[in-house]
Amino acid sequence: MPSAIVRLPDRQVDALKDAYRRAAWAKRAQTIAIVVVALALVALSAVQAEVDPKIFFTKIGGFFSYFDRLATLDSGQRVWTDPAEWFWSFKRNLRLIAETILMAYVGTLTGGVVAFALNFVASPNLTGNPVIVWTARRFLEFCRTVPDIVFALIFVVAFGLGPLAGVLALAIHSAGALGKQFFETTENIDMKPVEGLRSVGASYVQTVRFAAVPQVIASFTTFALLRFEINVRSATVLGFVGAGGIGQDLMEAIRKFYYSDVSAMLVLIIAVVMTIDISTQYLRRALIGEERR
């Protein structure tokens, strides 16, 4: 069956074109205004922070020259030409990295246990008392708001140099960070099993154990694995303030300008962190896949 194409009058076509151009220009004007405001805020922030672009471009060469020194042995040769000299303290560094990983593991485990216990209290769908919910959430908020390095400084003063200060700092910060992720997950669980157990007279602990925990345990494990990755890196930084691990020796090497030792420790740290990241990534994917099935 033949069909005809309807052609609008020229005046209607011109009106539609004008409306389209106005709408397109309004969209472009909005984008330009957002970009101008963003650039103005960046410039204002730079002025307030006393950022001097001239200093940046003048000193940028020192940044690259530092990496050149990291790749040079005391003899003047490149570090990869003499691996034995480069990694002369390999055994000690390996022991310190193992200490750093253990700090992260114990800190994550301790913080995870605290977060696991408090997250159910901080979830209003399981805890009916708003005062208890508010108190639990504020406590977790305090734990994650104060930087872990501040906690480490406090514990170094209290307990002295060593990994104990680092473990306690990581545990407190992990409890706050994991607690928030945990109770946000618990808030979104299916309430039908909870209501079913409550209707037959189950206690609070029984309701949590048999109705809430099975729904969230896989997600909690993936969050804990992610926090462990973060804590391995954080434990290295905590060593800068004397909280144990390889960070303490790394800071000493930086202060004494032992460039090749700094690069050797950095290579080991990067290799270990990459290995942990890849391993935990596979574990998280496996757990997420199991949860979906």
Overall description:
The protein has eleven helices and no strands. It is mainly alpha-helical and 293 residues long. α4 packs antiparallel against α9 and α8 crosses α9. The relative contact order is 0.10. The model has no long low-confidence stretch (mean pLDDT 87).
What is the first-to-last residue Cα distance?
Answer: 53 Å
User: How would the global form be characterised?
Assistant: flat
What proportion of the residues is helical, as a percent range? over 70%
Rg, nearest Å: 28 Å
Number of spatially distinct domains = 1
- Give the biggest beta sheet: none
Brief synopsis:
The chain is an all-alpha fold and 293 residues long. The chain contains eleven helices and no strands.
